[in-house]
Design brief:
Keywords: FAD, Flavoprotein, NAD, Nucleotide-binding, Oxidoreductase. It is an enzyme of class 1 (oxidoreductase). GO terms for molecular function: dihydrolipoyl dehydrogenase (NADH) activity; flavin adenine dinucleotide binding; NAD(P)H dehydrogenase (quinone) activity. Belongs to the class-I pyridine nucleotide-disulfide oxidoreductase family. It is a single chain. The chain has 460 residues and is α/β, with parallel strands linked by helices. It has three domains: 152 residues, FAD/NAD(P)-binding domain (3-Layer(bba) Sandwich), CATH 3.50.50; 114 residues, FAD/NAD(P)-binding domain (3-Layer(bba) Sandwich); 105 residues, FAD/NAD-linked reductase, C-terminal dimerisation domain (Enolase-like, domain 1). The chain contains 14 helices and 21 strands. Helix 1 runs parallel beside helix 9, helix 3 crosses helix 4 and helix 3 packs across helix 7.
Length: 460
């Protein structure tokens, strides 16, 4: 038996934040991890995917600038990009992250953690089974895994998921990407710019990035097709088969069209990694996202000792939101009086052009019955964008509550617009009135000057 104040199952960013914050404030903390300390984001998600996108971003940015474009005489070096990816993921060695836990006197248990009762966890690892007891809380931070849709033959063709794509050691000659969400579009562009000559995206919905503003997906689709990435929307995948053990994947779409590829990447969404957690012992569903209240406490569990943070609670499948939830849960465990979690979620798709959004879309605001006004402005009309080169595209949009005169949502499309997003997040979370926001003067010539033009359209 091992006893601690707090037991955290899952050592990704969300779990690390809970563990670190509790340990830094004097609690005894144990962490259970079945794979690598650092989790999906560090080794198969955010870090490697953005690292693989970066070479193409730099070349494209230089190619837009007269005087610099002439110096771009070659193409991206995929082998060098993969080597830098290996460095950024520490070669899938988590010893550095383990040292971080040790520096905070956090005990690490390698193995599969499973709830067995109130504040009780059983860990099964290579060295046998151990039983842990938490004096205060157990925190679930197990994340999600890639979902595979029930398409005829799809599992049999051994498709790539996000892990295969971000850990790839070669560039296929033909890549088919199923799914037009963030992972699908980012990996499609990354491999195309690393040298894959034929990339096709198949999205069953009517547009790319279906959860964002319609113009965002359309502008991204237009940019992709202009660059030579084929985009098929509104037609789902019907079947797949592979010719031989390592042969070509042949797929059929719902309209009968056939597409062949060397590799097929399935990026249609995520499902919670909760199946083996023992939630059924507590009367909770074992194959669903863990429902939580605004303080990350699992609903339906008496005593308020069980928490779920990060992707496994389904509130916002983003690393930064998981880290925020982890800090919030830690403060609650520490007995601090903290407000409930905000539902304002910033999100960035790191394609070129980038798609950045926070808060509500226009449709979401209307569905909520809010009085809505929208304003838009083109990125290419900004001097700060024009100095970056030619062919700058993208649109910025604010969704405004016309009665309270505050921003409900913001979307920015264009090269390098991710740095605009935090200002919008602060404005929305802080409910800053537009007439006050007017006095936040953007520098000239920067892309952030778009704020001035958007507010001018509000009559300010």
């Amino acid at each position: 038996m091992h006893e601690a104040d707090v037991i955290v199952i899952g050592a990704g960013p969300a779990g690390e934040n809970v563990a670190g914050r509790c340990a830094d404030n004097g609690l005894a903390v144990s962490v259970v991890e079945r794979e690598l300390v650092g989790g999906e984001c560090s080794y198969w998600g955010c870090i490697p995917s953005k690292t693989l996108l970066r070479p193409g971003d730099v070349l494209a940015a230089a190619g837009r600038v007269p005087g610099a474009a002439q110096a771009v005489t070659g193409t991206a070096d995929a082998a060098a990009a993969f080597a830098w990816r290996d460095y950024m993921t520490s070669g899938w060695d988590d010893s550095g992250q383990v040292s971080w836990l040790s520096s905070r006197k956090i005990t690490l248990f390698r193995g599969v953690g499973r709830l067995t009762g109130t504040r009780m966890v059983e860990v099964t690892g290579n060295d046998g089974t151990r039983r842990l007891t938490a004096r205060r809380a157990v925190v679930l931070a197990t994340g999600t895994v890639a979902a595979v849709p029930p398409v005829d033959g799809l599992r049999d063709v051994r498709p790539w998921d996000n892990r295969n794509a971000t850990a790839a050691t070669y560039v296929p000659r033909r890549l088919l990407v199923v799914g037009g969400g963030a992972t699908g579009v980012e990996m499609a562009q990354a491999f195309h710019r690393l040298g894959c000559p034929r990339v096709t995206i198949v999205e069953g919905a009517g547009r790319l990035l279906a959860r964002e503003e319609p113009f965002a997906g359309e502008e991204l689709r237009a940019a992709f097709q202009a660059a030579g990435i084929e985009v098929i929307i509104g037609v789902p995948l019907a079947s797949a088969r592979r010719d031989g053990d390592a042969g070509t994947v042949v797929t059929t779409l719902a309209d009968g069209a056939r597409i062949s590829a060397e590799e097929i990447l399935v990026a249609v969404g995520r499902r919670p990694a909760t199946t083996d957690l023992g939630l059924d012992v507590l009367g909770l569903a074992s194959d669903r996202f863990v429902d939580v209240d605004g303080w990350m406490r699992a609903t339906g569990v008496s005593g308020g000792w069980l928490y779920a943070v990060g992707d496994c609670n389904g509130r916002a499948l983003l690393t930064h939101m998981g880290k925020y939830q982890g800090r919030l849960a830690a403060d609650v465990i520490l007995g601090r009086d903290v407000p409930a979690a905000t539902d304002v979620v910033p999100r960035v798709v790191f394609t070129d052009p980038q798609v950045c959004a926070v808060g509500l879309t226009e449709q979401q605001a209307q569905d909520a019955g809010l009085p809505v006004r929208v304003v838009t402005y083109g990125a290419g009309d900004l001097p700060g964008a024009q100095v970056q080169g030619t062919g700058i595209i993208g649109t910025s949009k604010l969704v405004i509550d016309s009665e309270r005169s505050v921003i409900l949502g913001a979307t920015f499309v264009g090269p390098g617009v991710q740095e605009l997003l935090h200002a919008a997040t602060v404005a929305i979370v802080g409910q800053v009135p537009l007439d006050r926001l007017w006095h936040a003067v953007p520098s000239f010539p920067t892309v952030s000057e778009v704020w001035l033009h958007l507010l001018e359209q509000c009559g300010l």
